[in-house]
């Protein structure tokens, strides 16, 4: 039987960071993970370069049933703290866009940073360890595992969400929460591409590979980023972002011309080039390959613009700026970057991440009902929540 002050279950971003913090305070810490390798999502993230934080991270970039919950941790361990640590480790990085910071070289640098911090703090990391059961004792917790029994005073659950089961995701954290009587909010895939209804897919699949700048809106939230047509549906940053706000049955409102006045564009064409076809007019602002399919999809008449009636012009302009499309669904956890929902924040202290009614039991990272936007925010939540628990476990 092994005795530790702190056991962290989950060797991902939040778990490793928390373990390093606790170890640095002199606590004996062991991290247990069922996977063969630690930090697999970190290695996959940001196209292999890990978008490890965002310069503009703030509470407004997170979804949660209680939007105030994340404020404490985010303000006590900020993006600038993590950026400082990255610099201390000599990792070169750059801003790609919108404050998103990526490693110049490889996401491996971030995993190495975490492993070095754990090593410096005397943390033991054990992989390929299945947790069979968790029980509360008078002085802490007993874990039954495939590698024997463990006892600890503080137990930190950092097993993440349900996205990408291939990378080791399981509902373990939610089950532990329920075992100890904590409420778990319903979960759903987020930061995920949309799939389309057959009637839309049949035409739009032809546009696969084309990306355009859009403003995508749903449920009073909008994102101005790129949208990518795929052979399954709609993807790209704008679609991933808005997917977090979308619920089954909702329509998306997409402005495909966010920098232009569509009505003015058509009016100018009617004055300057009245004999030009509608397609010729639209070719000026959209990729050529897109225009023909888009005209067919919307059943517009591809005639000289002078032949279009006023109401036709108005309808075209309106659709270009406010295209209503009802996705069939999303690609689900298979390709989602994150999971919305999870351990209800009402059950946790926002200062320490400990369960209010279960002494010594902590939840950090994505398992908690705090979900960031695309752009480095989810890792920042992992660092901030891991840090907060790491100060007290
Ligand atoms: P995380 O999922 O990282 O770690 C959980 C750990 O628990 C894993 O090691 C897992 O093996 C382990 N575990 C699970 N069940 C277990 C069990 N039953 N027993 C033992 N161990 C168990 N975010 C961002 O900010 N910038 C980015 O660039 C990206 N990019 C990105 C790409 C892809 C492809 C994905 C899937 C996700 C991202 N994200 C991201 C999101 C980000 O990866 C995610 O929010 C964090 O990794 C969450 O950190 P956690 O430590 O909470 O969970």
From TrEMBL:
Cofactor(s) needed for function: FAD
Domain RsdA/BaiN/AoA(So)-like insert span(s) in chain numbering: 188-338
Gene3D superfamilies in the cross-refs: FAD/NAD(P)-binding domain, HI0933 insert domain-like, Translation factors
Keyword Flavoprotein: yes
Keyword Flavoprotein: yes
Coiled-coil residue spans: none
Domain RsdA/BaiN/AoA(So)-like Rossmann fold-like: 5-391
Protein name as it appears in the record: Flavoprotein
